[in-house]
Amino acid sequence: MANVGRNTPVRKFDAVVVGAGGAGLRAALQLSEAGLKCAVLSKVFPTRSHTVAAQGGVGASLGNMGEDNWNWHMYDTVKGSDWLGDQDAIEFMVRTAPEVVIELEHFGMPFDRNEDGTIYQRPFGGHSMNFGEKPVQRSCCAADRTGHAMLHALYQRNVRANTQFFVEWMALDLIRDPSGQVLGVTALEMETGEVMVFHARATLFATGGAGRIYTSTTNAFINTGDGLGMAARAGIPLEDMEFWQFHPTGVAGAGVLITEGVRGEGGYLLNKNGERFMERYAPNLKDLASRDVVSRAMATEIKEGRGAGKEGDCVLLKLDHLGAEVIDKRLPGIREIAKKFANVDPVKDPIPVVPTVHYQMGGIPTNYHGEVVVPKNGNANSVVPGFYAAGECGCASVHGANRLGTNSLTDLLVFGKASGDSIIRFLKENPGLKDLPKDAGDRSLSRLARLESQTNGESYAEVAKDMRRTMQMHCGVFRFPDTLAEGVKKIREISDRVTRTEIKDKSKVFNTARIEALELDNLIEVARATMVSADARTESRGAHDRSDHHERDDVNWLKHTLWYKEGDRLDYKPVNLKPLTAESIEPKVRTY
Amino acid sequence: MVNRIVVGAHYGLKDWLAQRISAVVMAAYTILFGIVWVSGGPFSYNSWKSLFSQGWMRFATLLFVLSMLYHAWVGVRDIWMDYVKNTGLRLLLEVVTVLWLVGCGGWAVQVLWRS
Amino acid sequence: MQFRVYRYDPDKDDKPYMKDYEVELEPTDQMLLDALVRIKEQDDSLSLRRSCREGVCGSDAMNINGKNGLACTTKLSELKQPVELKPLPGLPVIRDLIVDMTQFFKQYHSIKPYLVNNDPPPEKERLQSPEDREELNGLYECILCACCSTSCPSFWWNPDKFVGPAGLLHAYRFLADTRDQAAAERLDNLEDPYRLFRCHSIMNCVDVCPKGLNPTEAIGKIKTMMVKRAV
Fold it and tell me: How near does any CA of chain B get to the CA of C16, in Å?
């Protein structure tokens, strides 16, 4: 195998950030403004990252619309997580949220405004006043294009800070030295097919989610869990991967997201009888209950024959009663999407929607500083030096078993910034760049060489399709012990097939077949982690709902799953129920 | 010399504005001329000559010609800017254009005030 | 359904050519991008950019039957067959439907696309009235897909000097923001026969914008601001 020092070009940086979505850009900004030499790698031009598709808003208890405070936000988040969230990280996030949102406003983000000039906030699912009493307006938004406005504002601020971007570079593998310290990544320049080593003192993964392990997802094509795959291959465990959020309102058939903000602004769900069924499932917050609750209610309605549409396989999202003016002012993008993808104009007709895979609650285990932590020598949370993760690919864990709407954008701002700060601190304390291990590029180069020389293999597209189908069938909204067990078997078989995929296209120039095949290497790790972790967790909690164990089991399962690629091994670590300063929120029955 | 994009030449507004204003002048003159044409009755060399011997008509026509020349200058210059990439050649063509237009202007004055 | 797709791989082709494809579509395949994904399953050597598949990331802009648009929001049912697909015109082709957008982004960056406000930041948000915020509508929604700039003849002739509709739309987005303090510098930066005044109101940009934005109107407003300043 090639020796990196001789054959592969190496560039040295203080820090390398993989991914230029919200978290990556927020961290990069922190690093660039601190004057560090920082490289940001992205598979796509930064403003095309999937943060751009976030719609409804970013959660922060600014209290612009009435009373609100971080204690309430914290309670909602802990309850939303079904008590699987770590309360130190949650407290850190909700307390920092107002500050990072205000900062974003100062960066130029075009938030909607109230008459008094302050940021407009809308109600959102699971967000409540006074510990669950009634809905609160906490979601700071820019119409229904909050993610778009945010990503552009962050990119623009990075342009101002002169951040160095490597656009259309795909990171391939993590580089660790024998002590386990992380020293950068290998990456492929898509335009030329060249591999380079990014040798860095600190490495941050902000690679987003992996919703593309499912057939039906709101996620972009690029959401292939690259960071998770790279981490898993480098021996880092993945945390709580059984928890996948099904967003209640994906456009039936197309899977395109319809924001919860529709229900925040007053829209609601109907079954085929025209019944507002959420009143039965969540008498208090109704359509604004947590996403897992609403998705399950919808799936139940459909299962029990009350689904709408020709096939009875969706429910209807009604918003025409809001009037054209409100819809055009607050939800213009939704109207556009509904017209294009559902062929209905929501000013007149309801939108057919189904629960659709949306967000991965799990990820690379970190603490609330964004430092990656793994069990080592009896310490469940031992820091991996030089390695950080933030955004959807990280698991701090603030979302636990179910994320609240708006908390994803809060997460990426808070932990993007925090991990940037942690890196700055780490670099100050650890001057000097450790040498690259001799085999730094080997794993990547052998993966590429395998793809190059593979003959009589299977088409990567076919294998990917089978993986997605398997995940969809065996690990959906409702999970059953026998299908899960079978799913584990199937996904392991598919995992074997992934090692023999073939690409017909061998060109060096912008070879997207090669990119997709490399992405599949990452997806399959996430799929396996998900299936194996889900199969093992014999309880129902948040987004994980098992037919054989309908209740949450705090005695046996109030703990985080850790999945290791090596031998599909599972380990567990305790949930941190102790906040930083607030009082612990003890587990109790979760109703909305 | 290095070939770099220089940001902002700090002109262009005047030309853009002048092109709009000159267009208005030309339009106004055209309307005026149309009215004179329609109301002036049968046109002969003499009536034509007496029309252009009046001071106001000479002045209006001169204004029209000057507007047209400036309008044409901006328009033709834009064409050279779009299609002629060689700076030296472009400058030469621009100079030729200016000389040609100034010449046309002189000729117009001569025609108007000949008799 | 039938397609004719522009193909060029500098690694093996001497020159570009059009390749015909016949695809069997599923009922769920509504948009052009769905068909392109099917074509790629047949022939993995077809290269294109794509990501969000809902018209908000701006990756899959291309020339569709002669008109620029996003593959993911173009309905198959509205296309004449064979559907002719070419890369965006006026930019160098890297491969197949992928163009080199360096020039486009250079122009975007040249207008200083970020808020400039040198006052010390207040504790809370900077206030802005709903009316002032409304001025940004129709501007901040741009997805940088380059459909507009690459349909603009002025940009074709002078991609290195003319900012182009997308860049100018963004320039006005900041000029129109009541929180921005650099209006004078921004106008100085644009007062140039090439950078701004190459726009001849051809309005191809308005015609193709997949988000329904109006760069020509924004450009007109920049000119008005300049006139107001000068007169």
Answer: 26
Contact present, A199 and A436 (Cβ < 8 Å): yes
> What pLDDT is attached to residue B49?
84
User: Which band of pLDDT confidence, cut at 50, 70 and 90, is reported for residue A3?
Assistant: very low
% pLDDT > 70, chain A: 99
Contact A536, A570 (CB under 8 A): yes
Taking the C-alpha atoms of residue A588 and residue C129, their distance in angstroms, rounded to an integer, is 43
- Phi/psi of residue A563, nearest 5 degrees: -105, 130
d(CA A445, CA B114): 87
Which residues in chain B are closer than 8 Å to C106, comparing Cβ atoms? 5
Confidence of residue C116 (pLDDT cuts 50, 70, 90): very high
Which residue from A minimizes the CA distance to C140? A149
Query: How far is residue A386 from each of residues A28, A226, A303, A398, A436, measured CA to CA in Å?
Result: 15, 18, 48, 22, 13
- Give all strands (DSSP E) within A58-163, no chain letters: 58-59, 121-129, 134-140
Local structure of A75: helix, strand or coil: helix
Catalytic residue among A291, A443, A468, A546: A291
Q: What percent of chain A has pLDDT over 90?
A: 97
Backbone angles phi, psi at A459, to 5 degrees: -65, 135
Tell me the helix, strand and coil percentages in chain B, rounded to 5.
80, 0, 20
DSSP A541: B
Per-residue pLDDT, averaged over A480-496, amounts to 97
Token reading at A460: 């990567």
- Tokens representing A188 are 């492929």
Cα separation, B114 vs B64, in Å, equals 18
**How many whole angstroms separate alpha carbon A399 and alpha carbon A381?**
18
SS3 C114: coil
Contacting residues of C for B16, CB less than 8 Å apart: 197, 223
- Cβ–Cβ below 8 Å for B12 and C197: yes
C9 Cβ under 8 Å from any chain A Cβ? yes
Give the chains touching B; criterion: ≥3 Cβ pairs < 8 Å.
C
Nearest-angstrom CA–CA distance, A544 and A537? 9
Cβ-contact A391, A21 below 8 angstroms: yes
DSSP A341: I
Q: CB neighbours (10 Å) of residue A92?
A: 23
For A188, the enclosing helix (H) or strand (E) is: strand A182-189
CB atoms B10 and C158 under 8 Å: no
Residue from A221, A299, A309 nearest A476 by CA: A299
Residue-wise pLDDT for C126-179, tens only, equals 999 999 999 999 999 999 999 999 999 999 999 999 999 999 999 999 999 999
The DSSP 8-state label assigned to residue A547 in this structure reads S
How many whole angstroms separate alpha carbon A398 and alpha carbon A560?
12
| A-to-C residue pairs, Cβ atoms closer than 8 angstroms | 154
CA distance A8 to C79: 46
B56 Cβ under 8 Å from any chain C Cβ: no
Cβ atoms of residues A413 and A100 within 8 Å: yes
> CB pairs below 8 Å between B and C: how many?
55
- Paired strand residues for A561: A572
Is C114 part of the contact surface with chain A (CB cutoff 8 Å)?
Answer: yes
What does the radius of gyration of chain C's CA atoms come to, in whole angstroms? 20
User: Cα A202 from chain centroid?
Assistant: 22
CB contact under 8 A, C191 and B10: yes
Alpha carbon A473 to chain centroid, angstroms: 21
What number is the average pLDDT over the span B96-102?
97
Q: Enumerate neighbours of A (3 or more CB pairs within 8 A).
A: C
Chain C nearest-CA distance from B37, in A, is 33
Please, where are the H alpha helices in A242-346? 261-264, 278-281, 291-303, 323-330, 332-337
